[in-house]
Predict the 3D structure of the following.
Amino acid sequence: MNETNSNRIKNLLNEFDNILSNQNSQVLDIDFANETILITGAAGTIGSGLAKLLIRYPVKHLILLDNAETPLYYLQNDLEQLSKQNISIVLSDIRYEEPMVDLFKTLKPSIIFHTAAYKHVPLMESNPYEAVKLNIFGTKLLADLAIQYQTKKMVSISTDKAVHPISVMGMTKRIAEMYLEHINKTYKTQFVITRFGNVLGSNGSLIPLFKKQIERDHAITVTDSDVSRYFINKDKACQLILKIAHNDDWEYPILTFDMGEPIKILDLAKTFIKLYHTNTDNEIAIKLIGLRPGEKLHENIIANNEQLKPTRHQDILYVVKNQQMHSKSLDLSSLQAINSYQKPSEIKALLSTYCD
């Protein structure tokens, strides 16, 4: 590991410490005083990060929706201590049409931050039916209702795993991207997709796992000595997402962030041990466990038929299709017809036909 990579990793881990201590001093030039904002997956890492940022700025009405009762309850308690904003806490599920129609009719969101998703790759390999229903059709329902009820903008959170996907999670996120691309610029509602890598310190992610393993004096587990990933600070990601929502002049529907070069997980593990392991009586080992189902050695932020193009905003880049590529119509009826009794391999094979 060279000195440049070592310093990058140390900076990432310092950012992780800042996340744990809730240090976030940057002030953004944004104002949503006339906007009713809906955040789906509001109790998750990005959703709650957006909520805690937005309460620092003028917002007409903030709607926080999640189907996870306990995390949503904790978020509600946190915000009650911090904000006097007009906030609605909604325990519901974006897969269910009736409550979603009622929400759009009564609360009339003008901007949507769509962060709700099933994201854990190995888990979705064995539960593809649920991934399809939430990641694809939950997104579709939100988008269709946004059009019907004249929402101004929907910002959907995607992932680098949607690029040349091999996993159920990646395939479902790519198909969701394709649907939003297909309907964008056809209606008044603007659809914007933000595609980025692993979120530093997110729920169930790598660094909190390393921390827990060290605290218990367990070996740190790494899937492969060559595996690498893109990383982004949660607060930086949330700030950039808010900037995207605040501006209307996006030329292309897919955006990504400047995350630097991918980092080898083995290097991250070694640096983490040096910085966080204080029990000198017990040496922490690194155990290679092999790639899990659906995982790649390396992720990409753009596909072979895409290129990056700068925007006028620092750290935000367009993902642009090559000129010879044309968007095709998207018929989701075969995916709509799947059932929970089908073999995971059958559902995954069907998903792959959309991502060729």
Summary: The chain has one domain: 23-199+230-260+300-354. The domain at 23-199+230-260+300-354 is CATH 3.40.50.720 (Rossmann fold). The longest strand covers residues 32-40. The radius of gyration is 20 Å.
